[in-house]
Amino acid sequence: MSPPPPSETELSDPATGNKAFQLLSDETRVAILQTLWEAHDPADETPIRFAELRERLGADDPGRLNYHLNKLADNFVRRTEDGYELMESGKRMVRMLLSGTAIDDPQVEPVAVDISCWYCGSQPEWSYREGWRYLECTNCEARCVESFPPGVISKSEFPPSGLRDRTPNEINEADRIWGAHRRASIIDGVCPECAGEMPVTSVDICGDHQPDWDEYQFCENCGSIFWMLVSHVCEGCKYRWRMPTLFYPSRHPAVVAFFYDHGIEFDLATYEQRARLLDFEEELLSEDPLRIRISVPSEDEILRLTFDEHMDVVNVDRCK
């Protein structure tokens, strides 16, 4: 019989997080996790014996090493008859350290990449600073969001580990794929940070939307070039993501089939096809209940999808 799921109180108890921080506040314990990670072979899940662990760490005091192992046991380290091994929680902790998210702050100066600005078609530049990836057009001053500097057409989180041993174009491609999968996970209601529930928490619709589409400048009334924006917040880790409603049709099979019927292998993850979003048309059918229709054109035919307040599709139809 499966164990009962943790209660809401257990999941939200801050003492759980405090305990994890306390356990890893000692450098010896962090060294133990790193050593177990280095000894770990994904193809051969063999625990490491105490004597070998002590030798790898260069620990002179076996009693002190055993004390720290006991502290880590049942949280990050599993003790077996054959020795010690990392639990999945321990592996995640080491992976976070290896990603550089917690400690590194690399910077990459702007460099041209082989894609096109989806507003003006020119070649943008890629750069990295403070844990964020920037795509900036050197030809236009598109500003789709008020918080972006002029010319920054895209900005997203990207772990420092993704920069290692890659050229700028390879980094940009890895970032594209990584971001596309995270966005898809959020649309499907699963947090990409902790795998918790990440429902739609609000759909913000500008009451007087007036962006300058000729210059690709945001609306001063809402601070965005996009009329409707959807927010998701994870119920577990509070991770928040906000994106235009125009992204949501990309997850529906009818849209993929619609483009395929017109000879297009639709993949919104590519920068070139992302420009297709600018051709989608939004309609606010009703506010209570909320109903939003997004029309997807291709040649002489239109695919229309109607979404509810949860951004679930409630109707699909095709028309000429």
Structure in a nutshell:
By secondary structure, the protein is an alpha+beta fold.
What does this structure look like?
It is a single chain. By secondary structure, the chain is of the alpha+beta class. Among the domains are: 89 residues, Orthogonal Bundle (Arc Repressor Mutant, subunit A); 74 residues, no CATH class. Helix content is 29%, strand content 24%. The chain is built from nine helices and 13 strands. It has a four-stranded antiparallel β-sheet, with helices on one face. The protein has a four-stranded antiparallel β-sheet with strand order 10-11-12-13, covered by helices on one side. A hairpin with a 2-residue loop joins strand 1 and strand 2. The longest helix has 20 residues. The radius of gyration is 24 Å and the shape is elongated. The N terminus is likely disordered.
Helices and strands, with pairings:
Layout: H1 8-12, H2 14-23, H3 27-39, H4 50-57, H5 62-72, E1 77-80, E2 83-86, H6 88-99, E3 108-112, E4 124-129, E5 132-137, E6 152-157, H7 168-187, E7 200-205, E8 228-233, E9 240-244, H8 253-261, H9 271-274, E10 281-287, E11 290-298, E12 301-307, E13 313-319
Antiparallel strand pairs: 1-2, 3-4, 4-5, 5-6, 7-8, 8-9, 10-11, 11-12, 12-13
